[in-house]
Amino acid sequence: MSGSHRTSWLGLLLAAACGVAALADEIRHNDVLYLDEVGMRPIPLKARHATQITFSRGQSAVLGSLRLGQAVRLIGYSEKRYYVEKPIALGTVRGWVDAEALEPLTLEQRAVLDQQCERARTIKPAIARHEVLIGMTQPEVLAAVGQPQEKSSSRTAQGDEETWSYVTYRYEPYTQSSFVNGFYVTQTLNRKVVTGGREVVFRNGVVTTIRAKEGGTQAQEMPPPVVVPVPVIIPQPMVPHKPGGKAPSLPGKGSVTPPRSTPKPPGSIKFQGPKQPSSDGKTSSPTP
Description:
By secondary structure, the protein is an alpha+beta fold. The chain has helices spanning 3-17, 21-24, 107-128, 138-145; strands at residues 33-34, 43-46, 51-54, 62-66, 71-77, 81-88, 91-98, 150-156, 159-180, 183-203, 206-214, 219-221, 230-235, 267-272. β9 (159-180) and β10 (183-203) form a beta hairpin. The radius of gyration is 35 Å and the shape is elongated.
């Protein structure tokens, strides 16, 4: 084996041995069509002449070289440079190769790839905006809005259908007061309130329907739950009276209706249960 070939293959082996860095830290470019993102399989191609495989599109950091007739698999399609992968003894190496250095694609393959590139110009900005569009695939919806809260499936005459349900929330601040270690403490907490949602319906793996939901009155406390004493109102004793007569006075009191100048509460307020510390474990500023 010549010195140049030995050096190139050592570069490929080193890239695979270092945790397959080309796989773990690859940069995905917006103007490149990655076949796995559109559900396409890699396309096998052979080298038309000797060429280099580089780590970046700028033909820097050479990973190795290809000889005439060596096979690679196309996994990223762009106009001038292809993103390819090559199996080796220790794993798989991915890098960039000049498009002219590989055998040409068939007319059918190029037509499909060009159509997918045109589609990607619409899909990728929508994913960046976290927006779901009719015609998206399930991986594209996952990239746009993540995993749904619920999934359901059904089978119709037109094909298999799957519905993904998403719930949208907003966060509302509120105050909670309680006695902690003998002090009256007020805390500001947040709760998650349902504001709406949407349902995404797939037919044979493609979005066909998007349904919106509005409103929502159900509120959920953010964990950990807040445990506070429950106030218990003790009412004053009432004396029965005859229908049509005057309301009797309470024992030891004046009229049932107190004077406006000195209003009296319906009863005293006591807290049920032992005093409990704050649930979040933080020390609040006590107010005696």
